[in-house]
Specification:
The structure is a homodimer. Chain A has helices spanning about 1-20, 25-40, 40-55, 65-70, 70-85, 125-135, 150-165, 185-190, 205-215, 235-250, 265-280, 290-295, 305, 325-335, 345-355, and strands spanning about 95-100, 105-115, 115-120, 140-145, 175, 200, 225-230, 260-265, 285-290, 300, 315-320, 340-345, 360-365, 385, 395, 400-410. The first copy, chain A, has 2 domains: about 1-220 and about 390-410, 3-Layer(aba) Sandwich (Aldehyde Dehydrogenase, Chain A, domain 1), CATH 3.40.605; about 225-370, 3-Layer(aba) Sandwich (Aldehyde Dehydrogenase, Chain A, domain 2). The longest helix of chain A has 19 residues, at about 1-20. With about 425 residues, chain A is of the alpha/beta class. Chains A and B meet through α1, α10, α15, β13 and β16 of A and α1, α10, α15, β13 and β16 of B. β16 (about 400-410) of chain A pairs parallel with β13 (about 360-365) of chain B.
């Protein structure tokens, strides 16, 4: 696709510029972009109105309309995001190790930008500014392919940022928005491995699956979280209720919310009525196994499918288990490798659960809701990786970098 | 494909066992496998004879026959490789960082095995033992899909190792060989993302390209090296001759051998006759630009294609350039991001070349031939990554691991 090849070439040039740009210059651009977004809020809001109008006319409604909507407050929050990124340390250039070899070669490993990063996303226009901030700070050029329903908003934000780039002597192609929003342009981006070093899909499970199956560019898979909490027989039950309620209800629509609760049968009769009462009070639908339904009158029977479902809603699957082994087996079968927690006062069980459960984040005695770049102290987040290659769990600035070996010699040849 | 799904399931089980196996038990298996390979050399050699006979009858010859051939010595060397891996530190379990957050959560990042690693390779049966050693040491189960010409050899080696695994109480499925060697089985392995965490192709450019384009499993791209040496105007010319000759002729068939030489025009008249003489004496064909052909009488004119070619042979493309900028531009256009060197006595040029050239390994005043896990001091190598995701440059044991976050709480919930 011609548009993408041209954008790819320009992004590669911009990436070469960015790789050499000092942190101070990158931070200046980020601060000015923040200011410019706020000053140009009128332009952005009127573009967003067009998107909203088209969406309404196209019959969209509910959560997608909320994701699409921009307000003064949301624009201020995008700007604040850019300003906060200026406060983080620039990871580029850090030398991770440097050693002298017996032959006198001094071999160092240095952190460098990835190069050109592609992002395919859906209806949230704030992603445009967020991704720009993270990529610019880490010296990467970005090619964004947003959803067609947000095109006017994305285009307005991109233009404002490109002007700031130019005014600061940066190539405007540090940030490029794909103007063709057809399905074909998304597929073409997945085949652009000559110019892209990394592709990150941000969106629902369908989008992510399509990218994983079609991309020639290395991908980081993000997002799907079928998270579990296991209440062990030694758990502090009051805490367990609070953690369960928090993990399910504090924000049910996100990937680190708990979807299944596993309860040791020795504490089920005591714990489930307490937890059930608090959950039902907050409107949570409980889908339980036989024993759970006997203990919690308001529960409905769970189906096999429920154990495998990321509800992203006020629904919780609940199962009683006879041992920690059974709980771990259940998590191995149905978990998506995102966030898993054990609630226990037993030292050996805590350690064994941490060792044996294979997930991006494994917790003892805390809510799964903490799996997040900000909560982990990274100061930023581009997504939460559920794959094992390159990055696993919340990804901050470092995860947008690669490394290269730099070797200082004085005439060495190989024998 | 049924065979692969079954092998995938068993590999996942074996990986769970391996993730918990202590280093001492893994090392014991590696030592015993080494001994068993040597003791069973007769079985391996007779299987290899069958492969060699089939290959001869199938019309194969030359380098591929040499790659396929096993001897007592080569078997001893496979065994020695396994023993050496026992001497390396087990990377699994290392805690890379652990920090207490303001809310009291203690968040650590721990090194864990990848899980199940697939390898697609061609005709070298020694890869079977090498990959087994690296994967077992790092707690990964391996599914190998070797070339059909080496099947009997691979099968014999796998059986011997599987017996050792079983005798030591390990699941034999820690190592599995795909018995279907059709093209379909390779493609099916690329789609086995439900069971595979990583797929590494080891072989020629065609194989690697097929895997990159078809895999649903995360891939590490290895190998292609169109490497350059730039002789700057301030280079020590005697050293430059020695380094150029070494990088081209010490082992021309490998990815870190130099393929193109860029010479600053201010030293061309002095350097090229010296280098040309040594190269021609060693049978190197020199394909030069106009100026090079004028200076070296034995040189032939280079075509555009030559600048982009990984010869893997005693052929060297030679171009004169008017500046370091031109040299870097040439490398940006034609390089494959593997290994690039500048030969210079100028401090600023050395630093600028290290900064600006985007490759896995960038050298000052040394031969490109050092890009290699053993030369870098890793004690082992599974390949040389030319991508930027996860691993770049020589990959040792650490590059076969992932991480997970382990979080110690005491009742934290998110506000």
């Amino acid at each position: 696709m011609k548009e993408l090849i041209e954008k790819g070439k320009k992004a590669r040039q911009a990436a070469r510029f960015l790789a050499q740009a000092p942190a101070s210059a990158k931070n200046a651009v980020l601060n000015e972009a923040a200011g410019s977004l706020v000053r140009s809020a009128g332009i952005i809001l009127s573009a967003n109105e067009k998107d909203m109008k088209n969406a309404r006319e196209g019959g969209l409604k509910g959560a997608i309309m909320d994701r699409l909507l921009l307000t003064q407050e949301r624009i201020a929050s995008m700007a604040e995001g850019l300003r906060q990124i200026t406060l983080l340390e620039d990871p580029v250039g850090e030398v991770l190790s440097m050693k002298k070899r017996p032959n006198g070669l001094v071999i160092g490993q240095k952190r460098v930008p990835m190069g050109v990063i592609g992002i395919i996303y859906e209806s949230r226009p704030n992603v445009t500014a967020d991704v720009f901030g993270l990529c610019l700070k880490t010296g990467n050029a970005a090619i964004l392919r947003g959803g067609k329903e947000a095109f006017q908003s994305n285009f307005a934000i991109t233009k404002i940022i490109q002007n700031v780039l130019e005014e600061n002597g940066f190539p405007p192609e540090c940030l490029q928005l794909v103007e063709d929003t057809s399905r074909e342009s998304a597929v073409a981006l997945m085949k652009l491995d000559e110019y892209l070093d990394l592709l990150i899909p941000r969106g629902g499970a369908g989008l992510i699956r399509t990218v994983v199956e079609n991309s020639h560019v290395p991908v980081i898979e993000t997002g799907v979280g079928n998270c579990h909490i296991f209440v062990d027989e030694s758990a502090d039950l009051d805490r367990a209720v609070a953690i369960t309620v928090n993990a399910k209800t504090q924000r049910p629509g996100v990937c680190n919310a708990v979807e299944s609760l596993l309860v040791h049968e020795r504490v089920a009769e005591k714990f489930l009525p307490l937890a059930g009462k608090e959950l039902l009070k907050r409107g949570v639908e409980i889908r339980g196994d036989k024993k759970t339904c006997e203990i919690i009158p308001g529960a409905v029977p769970a189906t096999e499918e429920d154990w495998a479902t990321e509800f992203l809603d006020l629904i919780l699957a609940v199962k009683t288990v006879s041992s920690m082994d059974e709980a771990i087996g259940h998590i191995q079968t149905y978990g998506s490798g995102h966030s898993e927690a054990i609630l226990t006062e037993n030292y050996s069980n805590a350690q064994a659960f941490l060792d044996r459960v294979d997930a991006a984040a494994v917790y003892v005695n805390a809510s799964t809701r903490f799996t997040d770049g900000f909560e982990f102290g990274f100061g930023a987040e581009i997504g939460i990786s559920t794959q094992k290659l390159h990055a696993r769990g919340p990804m901050g600035l470092k995860e947008l970098t690669s490394t290269k070996y730099i070797i200082y010699g004085n005439g060495q040849t190989r024998e």
